[in-house]
Amino acid sequence: MTASSVSSPQLAPAAELGSAPFRLAVAMVAWTIVVILKGAMVTSTGSGMAYADWPLSDGQLMPASSLTTLAGFLEHFHRIAGAIAGLLSLTLVVDLYRRRALATAGGRAAILGLALILVQGVVGGVGVLNNTPVAMSSLHGTLAQLTIATFAVTAYRLSRRYAATKAIAHPSTGAGRRMAVIAVVALVVQTIIGAIARHSGSEHALWTHVANALVVFLLVLIAAGLAAGRFAAVPGIKSLSRWLLWLLVVQLVLGFVALLIRTGKSPENVEQLVRASLISSHVLAGSLLTVTASLLAAHVFRGTARAPEVARG
Length: 313
Hints:
Layout: H1 20-44, H2 65-68, H3 70-98, H4 105-129, H5 134-157, H6 160-164, E1 168-170, H7 173-200, H8 203-230, H9 237-261, H10 273-303, E2 304-306, H11 308-312
Parallel strand pairs: 1-2
Helix pairs in contact: 1-3, 1-5, 1-10, 3-4, 4-5, 5-7, 5-10, 7-8, 7-10, 8-9, 9-10
């Protein structure tokens, strides 16, 4: 095995799939962004219990109130958007099955994404039936972040970039991979704390989320800097690192704004759409940050290998 190139034979079929699965995965990511933004608006406006039943809304597929009331519109069409995301996910898995590609890296990621989106839908529905308890609502929001990150990695693994990337041996491979994973884990933990703060109204959870933002900032900064500085020879690493840092700055600014204008989950918030939109944009930016960090981690693992002398040591 040479130091310049390391490849996995079982991943080779992904290069022969064509562009259709990749485009479908990208569409899934784009649509999940819509679902997350709709979900964030539901929480920010306190519209989560516009309908107390599930999976129907007031026992109907399309209740009149979903078109005549803002709370009903936000909640019902969030449900519809989630259902469409599930169908897109299932379509991707079936397509990969037909192409005999479920055993590839992209296929396995697609299966995981489908499982996550199904669990998320059930958690959301059960939460509604139980009057949206904090634990269920927080889990529902966290799973949304994990779902979009998983489908972003799926799209990456089905891309030409993934197929063309050859691993470059580097003595800092271990440290770079560890920091990339740590950054993703830190962002997920921050998402969980933020979800608890949003759904519980707990001041303790809120200020824990705020304080932890500094820790997350430093960890993501180190991960991006290490990747860009040590693995610049891998095409795409520097670009992903720059996007990650820009999103980190945007997220911090939006977080500060959200902190200043924060409100609880009161249904009265539906009358304050500008405020709800700003708070929801903080949630959306957080999901994009997690997506980019996950893509960076996936690309670092794909594009780097341990140097032979390090492996022997």
